[in-house]
Specification:
- The protein is mainly alpha-helical and 100 residues long.
- The protein has one domain.
- Helix content is 52%, strand content 4%.
- It is built from 4 helices and 2 strands.
- A two-stranded antiparallel ribbon has the order 1-2.
- Strand 1 and strand 2 form a beta hairpin.
- The longest helix has 28 residues.
Length: 100
């Protein structure tokens, strides 16, 4: 979404026509849909079982959470982890207050 906002967000330079406002509203709506998708993906991954190093299916929510939130991942193929990247990508930066 950042490239679209950088390319089309010119609110500080001029006023918008109705067609441009409509287009920007669609971009914002699409960005919100993408953000909700990634947040739902994070919630889904907190409930997704995985196989440990011994090939056992891990269903314990505590171990799933630890595996997903770990920095090194887990499992024999190094899968797991990724929470911090997912959080960084899906964080709603647009909702933060901006001071000028």
């Amino acid at each position: 979404m950042v490239p679209l906002i950088l390319a089309f967000d010119t609110q500080h330079f001029r006023t918008y026509t109705d067609a441009e406002n409509n287009f920007i509203d669609k971009i914002n709506w699409f960005g919100n849909v993408i953000m909700v998708y990634f947040i739902m993906d994070i919630l889904f991954k907190f409930n997704l079982s995985f196989y440990d190093e011994d090939g056992n299916l891990v269903k314990s929510r505590v171990r799933i959470r630890k595996n997903y939130m770990s920095f090194s991942g887990g499992g024999e193929k190094g899968e797991g982890g990724g929470f911090w990247i997912d959080l960084f990508i899906s964080f709603p930066y647009a909702a933060l207050p901006v001071t000028e």
